Amino acid sequence: MDALLCKKLGDPTLSPVPSSIQNDNGSPIVLDPKHPIPELKTPTSVLVRVKATSLNYANYLQILGKYQEKPPLPFIPGSDYAGVVEAVGPRVSKFRVGDKVCAVAGLGSFAQFVAADESELFRVPEGCDLVAAGALPVAFGTSHVALLHRARLTSGQVLLVLGAAGGVGTAAVQIGKACGAVVIAVARGAEKVQFLKSLGVNHVVDLSTENVIQSVKEFLKAKKLKGVDVLYDPVGGKLTKESMKLLNWGAQILVIGFASGEIPVIPANIALVKNWTVHGLYWGSYRIHQPHVLEDSLKELLSWLAKGLITVQISHAFALSEANLAFAAIKDRKVIGKVMVICEGPGSTRSKI
């Protein structure tokens, strides 16, 4: 089968080469067309033919060697995916060959086949696109657990989403709207602003032309609102520091990531005086400590997807052989929504860049 192998740490935006060619261009990833198909090692194992797998910022950081989890080399990157059941073990009871499923893998989804225990798989509802289902678990799961399980966002609260045009950002915006919150989105550039407006957000701040503090304060004053109740922050850096000036007494801060490359400082003395709650949210660790939370979350999200309450914006889609272009889209901040890798072989094509 085709599989993308990370053989060393480095910049994955460099062009991958077939594994049969000496990799002298510095690329850490190679395309292996003869990688063995995973075996069904237990009676409840399921082999899935991968239709599409999601590229998350964490995948990019992992290949750079800058992520908190550092698997031994070589490894196949990739986490959330969707596809069709190809084969089942003798004791599998939940799925049959031909069923459409999605799941989250620790590693290994940048390949044409993935083996997983049936307990790790979720049935994709009828009418749901498989590429959209493959984009759902990590990005939407992160935002869903953060906003509903941790912050317990309720109708009428003010939600401020930083990095709102990215994968987790667009998910947070939609989940916030589904909860009845007043959603303020922060992004950069006219195209991203227009997209966020199409999602029905209550206010959008364009960082290329506006000051976030001034813009949000003017909106809050016009709507007779006191301030922000929940800050959703996958960005970090200076933007976090500025956004804290907009928070209400008793506000909640959701620390999702640091796409800016700078880890912000949240002053403990101000958190004390303002009675803020700071939530660190590493979604992947729930798979170890509270897997039932992820299971309930993903089931609800698939239900929402089937009902049309949320939609998955696919910004770019690439073949496995074009994975470096997918990583470049993430690195260069070209993404509005999700980047997907299509794992169906050489016939796959990419979307807009």
TrEMBL record:
Listed PANTHER family: QUINONE OXIDOREDUCTASE-LIKE PROTEIN 2, SHORT-CHAIN DEHYDROGENASE/REDUCTASE
Domain (Enoyl reductase (ER)): residue spans on this chain: 26-341
Species assigned in the record: Eucalyptus globulus (Tasmanian blue gum)
Protein name (record): Enoyl reductase (ER) domain-containing protein
Alphabetized Pfam families for the sequence: ADH_N (PF08240), ADH_zinc_N (PF00107)
